[in-house]
Amino acid sequence: MKRIYKYLLAGVIATLAGLTACDDFLDVNDDPNNPPTSSPELTLPAGQGELAYVLGNQFQFLGNFFAQHWTQAGAANQYCSLDEYEITSSAYDARVWGELYAGALNDFRFVSQQALADEQPNYAAIGQIMEVYTMQVITDAWGDVPYSASLEGLSNLNPEYEPQEQIYTDLIARLDSAIALIDPSGETPGDDDLVYGGNMNLWTKFANTLKLKIYLRQAYVRPDVAQSGIQEMYSEGAEFLEMGETGDVEFADQTQNRNPFYQTQVVFRGGVDVVASNTILEYLQDTEDPRIDEYFAPAETGSNQGSFVGVDQGIECTPQRTGNQSNTVSKPGPAVASPATAVPFITAAESYFLQAEAVARGWTGGVGTASELYAQGIRASFDYVGENVGGVTALLQQPRVAYPTGGSVEAQVERIITQKWVSFSGVQGFEAWTELRRTGYPSFIEPSAASTLGASIIPRRLLYPNTESVRNANYPGLKEVDVPVWWDVKD
Amino acid sequence: MKKLLLLSFVLMFTLFQQAFAQGRTVSGNVTDQASGQALPGVAVIVQGTTVGTSTNVDGAYTITVPEGRNTLEFRYLGYETVTRTIGNATTINVTMSTDAQQLQEVVVTALGREEEERTLGYATQQVGAEQLTQGRERSVANALQGKVAGVNIQSQGGGPGASTRVVIRGAKSIIQGNQALFVIDGIPVDNSSAGTGDNLNNGVDVGNRANDINPDDIESINILKGPAAAALYGSRAANGVIMITTKSGRGATKKAEMSYVSSYTVEDVLRYPEFQNRYGQGFFGSPDLLENTSWGPVFTGEVRPWGQIINGQQRYKPYVALEDNIKEFFDYGSTWINTVSLSGAAENATYYASYSNTSQNGIVPTTDYSRNSLALKGSTKLLNKFNSSASITYTKSGGDFALTGQGNSPFNQLIQTPRDIPVRELEDLSNPFNDEAGFYSPYTVNPYWTLANQTFENDVDRLFGNITIGYDIIENLTVTYRIGTDFYNDRRKQFTAIRDVEGQNEANNDDGMYSETQLYYREINSDLMLTYSRDLTEQLDLEVLLGHNINQRRSDNLFAQADALANNQFKSLSNIVGTPLASSFRSVRRLVGLYGSAKLGFRDFLWLELTGRNDWSSTLPLDDNRFFYPSVNLAFDAATAFGLADNSPINFAKIRANYAEVGNDAPEYYTRSVFVSGNIADGFAGTDLNFPFAGIPGFEVSNVIGNNLLKPEKTNSWEIGADVRLFQERLRFDAAYYDSKSVDQIIPVPISFATGFGSANLNAATVRNKGVELLVGGIPFENNDLTWDISVNYTKNKNEVEEVFGGNEISLGGLSSAALVITEGRPYGTFKAEDFLRDPQGRIVVNASTGRPRTADEQTYQGTIQPDWSGGLVNTLTYKGLRFSFVFDTRQGGKMYSRTRSTQRFAGTAPETLYNDRQPYIIPNSVVEIGNTGEYEENTVPLTNDNLYSYWGNLPEGSNIIDASFTKLREVSLSYKLPESIVEKTFFGNIEVGVSGRNLILWTPDENTYIDPEMNSFGNGNLQGYDFSSTPSTRSWGANIRVTF
Fold first, then answer.
1. Nearest 5°: phi and psi at B999?
2. Which pLDDT score, from 0 to 100, does residue B101 have?
3. d(CA B413, CA B405)
4. Going by C-beta distance under 8 Å and a sequence separation of 6 or more, which residues neighbour residue A224?
5. Interface residue A448 vs chain B (CB under 8 A)
6. Which residues of chain B fall below pLDDT 70?
7. How high is the pLDDT of residue B635?
8. What is the set of domains in chain B, with CATH numbers?
9. Chain B partners within 8 Å of A194 (Cβ)
10. What is the pLDDT of residue B199?
11. What is the architecture of the domain spanning A42-254+340-445?
């Protein structure tokens, strides 16, 4: 007995002494739950999905409220802050600003850099194009933002803010270098490219359309730069996205893969908040636009059951509110609020409207017909939301829709942007608000009844996020929501 | 109690070799002078030799005395040593009396060592079994409330099996745990509290794992307060240690003793929110039968319809306030605890066995908790210099819990129920007016529906125990090996029924949800210790300890969820539409340590101890994973040194001082950057995009930058204290001052997202805690029959975050509009919240068109969760067999966020919404901004009837931060022990009956009309101070009986 104990103890001591010296015993700190490395194939879809989530969720709410496609229903008040234009510095912080920079943008940066190292130029090109796209969204929302100094991790913990003008200039250069990388004969992505499944021809067109969009954003602030850039593209025979070539991310009707607006508003909130704004609803009704069936749903109950009824923008967030429930008026419709609704980055319709504007401004060297491109834009919009394209002909007869051929440039632009605005309804809210800021169209938009800004002011930017003010020594200080961004110079 | 501890000390240090020399045989009995009872385990030594034995359980001994020796020495810790000349006697009977000075002074310190309290250079506080179990509280941690200075014990909610947070001397660590380490019989055990869901939505308080400990099995608890006390334990002990010693059968005076304890307690809600009872259901002052708010007209008493029209029918009721409509929802809860135990001691062996059952029914209908535990413990002392012991405890616990938080939680529904809605009439879900389609309001859900259809249950199997083997190598040199383990499996099942109705309540439709979670945890702890003690000279003695420790903690968790169900018939992952979501999480960490201590005693009044520990941790960079930390402590017994006991009223006076460093390693997996499966969320439950996305995997660059240059964290602390007792111990003081600084804290420092990341793992913060602990106690009156014992404790801890990397701010969580942050120059856990916009004179700026306050662009700091001070009062009166005790507990200062206030204001049920009887008024002392100029003028725009609701419903979140001060009558107990003259005639050894109550009265500042400020909805982690619609806390009272056979 005694001897057994002795041996036991001796054994224990020897084992313990051995273990202390043994590094292997302590070499267990490699995370078994997450991989240490990735590849462009695995990270590209993550970046695309994240970007689509932000555009299809928080920016979808924000943009469609500011652009007056949607407004808050009476019986709830979740989104009154949007109708009141009360945008706080914490509202679009970690989950938007954070996801755009540290999510999508950093993932695209990894994709483009890793792809260059791995000699996969097409991945590198897609990564760069998506970087430019994401960066434009960021700067359009917040104006001057970190750009060259961003994405450097520990090497620069206080990224400097850069003037938007400089960022815009560089975005064009980056797009050019991305386009130059595209090698149609090289290895291309497959299903992991959620937008085009590796079709590099479409990526070239997407990049060109994005470039056109970036130039046109500067149409009022730097018309000479916009004009010469666009002219150069046309002289080089640049191709743009056409019918059916929308670049979007499709969601899937399965757990945690559903469209985020659907999941947030329809499922989580039970559809009690978001309803049709009378601003667009009355325009659609006035122009007898059949897309009304796709953008909105008839009232489900109450005295207006079965008809399309909207709510005056912001009125339910004022003392004049009715308090009516959302199901007594029109909620977002099947094309924009279904489980698998796609979130587009650039639609074919948008491409046509961009081209139409370029032509209307006379910046294409005579290439293209504005009225035809305008009509194509409307057709592409019908097509995208699942409306019969045959209805476009009748719509184009409507006095408020017919193209003002021969009218002033500004009159033409107004018509183009107004129809573009319709095509954005519930689809590209952020772009609708951004183009409204740039052009002031549709001209019939008045500030929300619940506005806390002065008369005839809509939000011109988002407040810099709270995290920047506390984490970044180069935080430039508060810029109120009524301060326009650099390119926003037109009244 | 005292005796038990003394005994155990003897067992440790008096393992004497039998002598085989020729000589006389002497035998006899040893008894206690006071009680006349036999004293087992008394060391009987032939003076001047190593020959000795000890008395058996009957107090008898027989010893062979070598030739030429003539004196026997009887030693028993806590008793005065007795010396007897043998002469010609063959029988020597001895009575021993207690040594007053040494009484109560043996405590269990780090690693389960038993040491004389007066030789310790650091603060500890012991709580005995009687104090612990007098209130019949099922949770060990709760049972300590109010009784220990320097320890903040906060029970988090009123649900059955709810969790408790135990923090000693202030929070130190920003992301790692701040709770004291629980150690049972020398083996650390897990006390985690894995939360459920996200904190805000439909969370459940599943309790903390220390709830698995059966208080009736505990012999004593010693609280090691500072790092110095716990330095030998290493990393996890920087937060102090709750050392639990379980019953062992040691010192049982009979060969076997059986005891049975039974208690039944009843509980109800301690604090209901106050409600206004003037206005009923409606909006804008008009009736509205759909509303969940009380912004309707003044009560009229007229009979009016309510609820929906169903099949042409509608219910009618008088339009009056129902003052108790919320109260009626809650049941009386009950807790029945039964423990039976068997213990005994034979000559060289002890054993203890117990079975305990706890059954609790919650105040929220359908909720319950149960715990069954089985404990076995035994020890033997072998003649061949070996001794061994083993213990094992199996616990099965679990329950049915109610949801908390926003969303469908019952409390959230209740506090917004209009003042005239009869809640109890909503109970029958088969009534078409009450089911999901017929319920009156689309804005809330019938709380009874939630209880029946949104369920959460768990079931935990847990085993912990240890085996210890000791061997006396030579005299005074002992080697001990102890290995222990703690593992559990926690299985959780959450269910939400499908809701599919048409009509007004359609917005609440839900596809249903079912999830299963399995949490598996296993900890192994091994200690090899060598102890040596020796008198170096007559005046100097030495105790040395050397040890080696291995600790491994492993978790392996599985989670699966179906977020659309096929039907409501059964709760299973096969009841699903679409694809279930599954994930797993594993972690393992290992630590190897070498430690040692040397304690020098000088002339029985001065002790100096040096300790050191060197750890190698798996969580630090592999090539730099070693860290060393020392401590030193000094105890000076002035009373002995200066002979005060004999010539002054001072019986005892000890001064203690110490300095300690305790190192701490990192959380697992902080040293390397990774990629993570793509996930993005907007903050609403269930709206995530989670990869794989339509079957395509995606891994994003993690937002956290790993760091292969991490250093260990260090807590440096010093402490001085004194323990003085006067007038035959009738008056006693204990005071401590400490100052501890936790530096190089390893945290994921938030960094600008524009860096491409959200945080970087860095050694990046310093938190300092300075404080005072005072304990004043006394026995104002004492005679043969009556004793009055009273003690007061006071704690003041000043906490400050001295440095955060780059001046950054770290959010502990909460709401984005009212977060709890760590920021330089402020206490740990400071509220940063939306505030009113104010003009330079501090007046509230209102919106010129609505008259409603504007919210400032920037959030402001609005107080901390840290109290200014806390204290307790423990009072005990004993008269013959009667014992009466009560405990007060108070915490003053500190803030909390109250969602109850926010919701009650929004819903118009809070009393303050009656301000100005809801007539239009101008917010007093408010201004409007002139244009956009930054100039202000007096406000003349009144709040109107129409926007009063908007006013109360949209105040900046900071206005929901309230004073969290409270005082509680924490515990009252009365027990009666039947006199021996009666008991003797029965077959019982002892009979004791009692009644007790807990948390009977709560006092709070006037502004808190809402809740018990001890509640916290976010579990017992670092995020404290949020009332977020959790189950209200309770008061309880009950009766108990304990008998021994």
1. 55, 45
2. 46
3. 10
4. none
5. no
6. 1-22, 34-35, 77-78, 98-105, 194-202, 250-255, 383
7. 92
8. 2-100 (2.60.40.1120), 140-248+256-268+333-413+438-671+706-829+865-894+964-1044 (2.40.170.20), 672-701 (no CATH)
9. 693, 696
10. 56
11. Alpha Horseshoe (1.25)
